[in-house]
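hey can u run this one w/ zinc ion bound, need the structure tokens asap thx
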Amino acid sequence: MSSTIVDGLSYPVIVSDDAAPDVAAAVEHGAPVVVFADARVRARARRIVGALRARGARVLGSLFVRGGERGKSVRGAQSLWQDLLRLGADRSTTLVAVGGGSITDLAGFASATYMRGIAWIAVPTTVLGMADAAIGGKTAIDLPQGKNLAGAFWPPRAVVADLNALRTLAVRERATGIAEIIKAAIIADPGLLDLVERTDVAETDIAAWRELIVRAARVKVGVVAADPQERGVRAALNLGHTIGHAVEHVARGALSHGAAVSVGLRGAGLLAVRLGMFAPSDHARILAALRGAGLPLYWSPPGRGRRPLAKRDEDRVLQTLRRDKKRSGGSVQFVLPERIGEVRYAVAIDVQLVRDAVRQCAKPPQVEETME
Ligand SMILES: NC(=O)c1ccc[n+]([C@@H]2O[C@H](COP(=O)([O-])OP(=O)(O)OC[C@H]3O[C@@H](n4cnc5c(N)ncnc54)[C@H](O)[C@@H]3O)[C@@H](O)[C@H]2O)c1
Ligand SMILES: [Zn+2]
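ok here u go:
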């Protein structure tokens, strides 16, 4: 069993084969603890409870819920607050959240607000959670009007990625994680892209995942450490998410988050190439890496079968995109790649150029774009 610590924040980010002993070590002897977990990782959560008890923690109870975006709601938060109350949790209690980003976002938010704030530990069990969502102290729930509209900056006491949990994670969820890892590589780690190119997503080898996740987590930690409250450079983490979020929204569930980010990364690359700030060969390389991970390079609007993008679909994508907080006047703010390993953020792009990129992202790339 092995653990790697990623330094840089005020709390440890640990990538571990088995999170149980690391979580137990992060809790004081005799401290009250509640474990809140995705029912899909019940066995992993039980291991953590066992380790906590063995180290003398007072486990008040374990709560299992269905993971996923729907639980990240006012209702989800309310039931968690009420369960904490029922279990006798007070301000000295630590909440241990075991699951993907939906669970750590919800539990982090509930921790920030329960009795004006209690300690929590994030135990991510998805690639996306380990590489991205559980790190950085941003917590949130969704409102019917949109994602992450109520939340708080509330850093955990520790993040302990549980690599062995990945054995049960669906290939589609792994691919979503890879999209974010490719994003991290473009932001700050060119070597990470080489590593992705050599990885098979269906790969279950924990050692291979460990390296990818540690490298991506380093990128996230570095960006967050430089800008914990998102006043500037942290915006770089939105790479691929401007067009990505808009097509994810318009596709109404037909596109996974990773698939949408993949299309969004292509969109950002296209804009950067168009502006002459990014080499077409680097853009082609990213497309190949995305495709190699089984991610799509284009999307189709909702409806029966694959239909071409109509003007009204384009309008909807643009409307959604401009409703996003990144808008300003007749332009949209983008994060764009300059080189693999370097991005520029807050680049104002004319809406017409964005429209062209959106249109292009609804079709497979031509040979000029992939350079094949
Ligand atoms: N706070 C942040 O900074 C931040 C950053 C990025 C994303 N996010 C949030 O993260 C969420 C997405 O995270 P996610 O992709 O991990 O989603 P998720 O929690 O919904 O997990 C995805 C699916 O995998 C299942 N699952 C989780 N772990 C598993 C395992 N080990 N084995 C089998 N199944 C497992 C879940 O039940 C769910 O069905 C979004 O809500 C997003 O807004 C937050
Ligand atoms: Zn994302």
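The pocket of nicotinamide-adenine-dinucleotide (ligand 1) is lined by residues 38, 40-41, 67-69, 72, 99-103, 105, 125-126, 128-129, 132-133, 136, 138, 147-148, 165-166, 168-169, 173, 176 (CB under 6 Å). anyway lmk if its weird
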